Amino acid sequence: MTPTLVRHHLRQSGSPGSHDPGAPAGSCGRARDWAEIQERMLVPLYEAVYDRVDVGPHTRLLGLGCGSGLALLIAAARGAQVCGVDTDEERLDLARERLTPEASGEAHDGAARATVLACGGPEQAAGPGGSAFNLVTAFHPVGCVRSIEGLTAALVTAAGLAERGSPVVLGGWGPVERCATASVLRVAQRLADPLRTAGGWRPSGRDDLEELADRAGLRPDGSGRVACPFGYGDLSSAVRGLLSTGLFDAALEVTDQAQVEKELSEALHPHQRPDGTVWMANVFRYLVART
């Protein structure tokens, strides 16, 4: 397998935690929190999708908004050849540690040297061996990206790199009433309201994924729902994990970090168990579309 990671500088279509030099302080630490605390919450989604589209040695995968690479690592473990793009260079550095053992000084049997392409978008993410991709994923939830227009453009470009009829998988939050984390994310929405920002979290609509597929010229071909509970060892870990998503960045621009952490902690208290752990049941949805 040949994992490839590409710095994707189309900022508007990156993962939720993407940042720029003007981002709130501590973004490097938040990238690590994302990789160590939050990213694993979506593993049930990754696994369900890979089962649905039969990811294996025949798969040539392009992951949009790949973050710190956990979804790519899971696909690679199934034998897939993987390539990922993202705007967040700190997250990409962590992905390289996972997918390129020589970067961390570790050696793993069967791991191949990765090719890292710099300063490009999906159009520079050439398929392995010059072949076209036969699977594209955009797991970062619709409703958490900075610009639907930017994500749409990235999907159009990525679809052009894939074989005709290849699946393109889009991820999103499930119904608000089935996502306990929605009540917590409303804190970010409320605190950021003075900015009237287009970024941050918003509740998902029933047909969000279908509308996005239509915008990108993709043909829907089935969907599914997956339970993705958010579980944390303690309140502090929950706060760090949720802040790492980038969904609270707009709120941090309006007020200070202490205030955001205070209100986030208060919103999490109803979800804290007697043993101190935090547990929120959520349902995520995915759509399989075709190029």
Describe the structure.
The protein has 291 residues and is an alpha/beta fold. It has eleven helices and ten strands. Helix 1 packs across helix 9, helix 7 packs antiparallel against helix 11 and helix 9 packs across helix 11 (257-268). The longest helix has 13 residues, at 148-160. The protein is globular and about 50 Å long. 51% of the residues are buried. The model is unreliable at 8-14, 17-25 and 107-120 (pLDDT under 50).
Shape: globular
Main sheet overview = 8 strands, mixed
Give the DSSP E fraction (strand runs of 2 or more residues).
15-25%
Structural class: alpha/beta
Weakly predicted, low-confidence segments? 8-14, 17-25, 107-120
Give the spatial strand order of the biggest sheet: 4-1-3-2-5-6-10-7
The span between the termini is: 24 Å
Succession of helices and strands: EHHEHEHHEEHEHHEEHHHEE
Radius of gyration: 18 Å
Helix content: 25-40%
- pLDDT averaged residue by residue: 82
The count of β-strands is 10
Number of discrete helical segments: 11
List strands and helices in order, with pairings:
Blueprint: E1 4-7, H1 27-38, H2 43-52, E2 60-64, H3 70-77, E3 81-86, H4 89-99, H5 101-104, E4 115-117, E5 135-142, H6 148-160, E6 167-173, H7 181-191, H8 208-215, E7 219-227, E8 230-232, H9 235-243, H10 249-254, H11 257-268, E9 278-280, E10 283-290
Parallel strand pairs: 1-3, 1-4, 2-3, 2-5, 5-6
Antiparallel strand pairs: 6-10, 7-10, 8-9
